[in-house]
Specification:
The complex is a heterodimer of chains A (about 350) and B (about 280). By secondary structure, chain A is mainly alpha-helical. Chain A has a domain at about 100-290: MetI-like (MetI-like fold), CATH 1.10.3720. Chain A has helices at about 5-35, 40-45, 50-60, 65-80, 90-125, 130-145, 150-165, 190-195, 200-235, 240-245, 250-285, 295-300, 305-335. Chain A is globular, with a radius of gyration of 24 Å. Chain A starts with 5 loop residues before the first helix and ends in a 6-residue tail after the last helix. Classes of the chains: A mainly alpha (about 350), B mainly alpha (about 280). Chains A and B meet through helix 1, helix 6, helix 7, helix 9 and helix 11 of A and helix 4, helix 5, helix 8, helix 9 and helix 10 of B.
Chain lengths: ~350, ~280
């Protein structure tokens, strides 16, 4: 346990992520070679003539050894060449970059929803373990994690759109009449506020709420469980007993002393949940016609358009590695005991 | 064998919720085995005259867009959905156990290679990796099983490995070594069986997840093809009709899925409580 400075700690974490990144690239390379269809045809695009494909085959070095091909592949990746989508006619990298904010906005909203519901549930359950409230919270969260996300989404659409009519039809981020706000962050909620268009904000919010809840329900269980567990541990510890015997008010003990300490494992779990929801996103995006990268990949997959699928898998893996890295670093900064 | 039956009874008596889960489990197994015989109608028989009719006495769960009986389809689908999940979980348990025991017992380069491979799998969002694998291997039911098995592999390998690391320091392993048992014999006879109880919890929780995963893949159009009755596909087909109010198409297969997953999750929680009272959730 030597004392390292924060930059050193960050560097160490960055280095530790390299093997995973290499692994991901290898898997993705194997995937390109195994995918049905000719990789040269991928990179050449839809309307390529046989001569053009042969030429791409030459430049891609498909007649060379596997090792050489691997390094050529890495070269293409570094230049950001993920091939061309046959369905949209755009480069895959362009499609992914324009669609990524939609997925991120949805996932963030989902995590936020889960946090707002699950953390109070967990705290209440921890204050009275084995009470009816504890059992209820356990039942709700287990039910939440047992619901297939795509089914939850459809159920919510049926109740809130068809029966109650209080949310718009599941047709994506905005209704057909509105045009997206000027691009700053790509998050419609933020962009509409930046431009001061409150109407658009409401429309974007109405469209976001159901998919976000659908995603969030799935994340309730892990968050509520970890909140409960860490609150119970901390509420039973010596410094809480000391605070109690010193006559501090219960609110102060609960929020200032206990909750702040319980927050660390909760943050770690939030990170895990966030990256997990990124994967679950695919199904929710399909249900709500959400124009994110998940629905993009599904559409491509159905049309046997494999370059986008491969680009999507690669993007997700790197996002995932990056997220876990960010959580590690954040954790190390918040809790000096975890740094090494 | 008598001990394990007594143990099971003890576990079930201790926790009513686990008992409920166990009964749910038995009913699932029953449907999986006898589903084809007890389904009231042929799950593939279409009848456009009664298409999209809501639940009634003749068709308890209603009929779908082709007039097929949804109750029969949901019942018959049990075997396929459970089958995929069981096959996938068994495969990853089998391979994961071997890798985990080897890595934990011998350490060294085997441990390094297994560790790296596991890290690589875990570097992907799992559902995304499963999707990629099915795309690469081809769109068939077997490949759904392989994909689900691969993404679950790290769980088993890791848990077994850490169990083995603890168990191999125990006195009876030393004793077994000193009395002349070879490495393979020690792994097969002493290490693996003693790591099993902990695995049961993971298998149960993992089954629920495998069912969700497989159904999710068929929901996006991978693996099982229509008109085969399968819960994920049935929900996908019903999705279009939700907006116009024909809720029963997606609702009943969705509830069946939830029933199955809920059953395994409850079972897993119950098993965890009885194996390790300290970790009570």
């Amino acid at each position: 346990m030597s004392k390292h400075s924060t930059p050193q700690f960050i560097l160490q974490r960055l280095l530790a992520a390299i093997p995973s990144a290499i692994g991901v690239i290898i898997v993705s390379f194997i995937m390109t070679r195994m995918l049905p269809g000719d990789p040269a045809a991928f990179f050449a695009g839809a309307s390529a003539t046989p001569e053009a494909i042969a030429q791409v085959q030459e430049t891609l070095g498909l007649n060379k050894s596997w090792i050489e091909q691997f390094f050529i592949y890495i070269g293409e990746l570094i230049r950001g060449n993920l091939g061309v989508s046959l369905t949209t006619g755009q480069t895959v990298i362009y499609d992914l970059v324009t669609r990524l904010p939609a997925s991120l906005e949805l996932t963030l909203a989902g995590v936020l929803f889960a946090f707002i519901i699950a953390v109070p549930l967990g705290i209440l359950a921890a204050l009275k373990p084995n009470s009816w409230l504890d059992h209820l919270s356990r039942f709700i969260t287990t039910a939440g994690v047992s619901l297939p996300t795509f089914f939850t989404g459809l159920l919510l659409v049926y109740i809130f759109y068809f029966l109650l009519g209080i949310v718009p039809a599941p047709v994506g981020r905005l209704d057909l009449l509105s045009s997206p706000p000027e691009h700053f962050t790509g998050f419609y909620l933020l962009d509409s506020l930046i431009r001061g268009d409150f109407n658009l904000f409401v429309i974007a919010f109405q469209h976001l709420i159901l998919p976000a809840i659908t995603l969030g329900i799935f994340a309730l269980a892990p968050l509520a469980r970890i909140t409960r567990a860490s609150m119970i541990t901390i509420l039973g510890s010596d410094f809480i007993r000391l605070a109690k015997s010193n006559g501090l008010s219960p609110e102060k003990i609960l929020f200032t002393y206990a909750f702040r300490n319980a927050l660390l494992p909760i943050i770690t779990t939030m990170g895990v949940v966030f990256s997990f929801l990124l994967g679950a996103n695919i199904l929710v995006e399909k249900v709500f016609a959400w124009p994110g990268i998940g629905s993009y990949a599904v559409e491509a997959l159905i049309n046997s358009d494999y370059a986008p699928v491969q680009g999507f898998v690669l993007t997700m893996a790197f996002l995932y590695i990056f997220l876990n890295l960010a959580i590690d670093i954040l954790y190390g900064i918040i809790d000096p005991r975890a740094g090494f | 064998m008598t001990i394990s039956i007594r143990q099971t009874r003890y576990i079930l008596q201790e926790n009513t919720l686990t008992l409920v889960a166990f009964l749910m489990f038995l009913s699932l197994i029953f449907l999986a085995i006898f589903g084809n015989a007890i389904a009231p109608y042929d799950p593939l028989e279409t009848n456009s005259a009664i298409a999209l009719s809501p639940p009634s006495l003749q068709h308890w769960f209603g009929t779908d867009q082709l007039g097929r009986d949804i109750l029969s389809r949901a019942i018959v689908a049990t075997r396929l959905d459970l089958g995929i999940a069981i096959a996938a979980v068994f495969l990853s348990f089998f391979i994961g156990s071997i890798l985990g025991v080897l890595a934990g017992y011998w350490g060294g380069w085997i441990d390094n290679i297994v560790g790296r491979a596991i890290d690589t799998i875990m570097a992907f969002p799992l559902f995304v990796l499963a999707m990629g694998i099915v795309a690469a291997l081809g769109n068939t039911v077997e490949n759904i099983i392989y994909a689900t098995a691969i993404i679950n592999l790290p769980l088993y390998a890791r848990v077994i490995r850490s169990e083995v690391l603890i168990i191999k320091k125990a006195g009876y392993i030393e004793a077994a070594k000193l009395s002349g048992n070879g490495d393979w014999r020690i792994m097969a006879r002493y290490l693996f069986p003693n790591a099993l109880p902990v695995m049961m919890v993971h298998i149960s929780l993992n089954m629920g997840w495998a069912i969700l995963n497989a159904a999710g893949l068929s929901f996006i159009g991978l693996g099982v093809r229509p008109p085969t009755p399968e819960w994920g596909i049935m929900v996908a087909e019903g999705a279009t009709y939700i907006i116009s109010g024909e809720w029963w198409l997606a609702m009943f297969p969705g509830l069946s899925l939830m029933f199955a997953v809920f059953c395994f999750n409850l079972l897993g929680d119950g098993l965890r409580d009885s194996f390790d009272p300290r970790k009570k959730t």
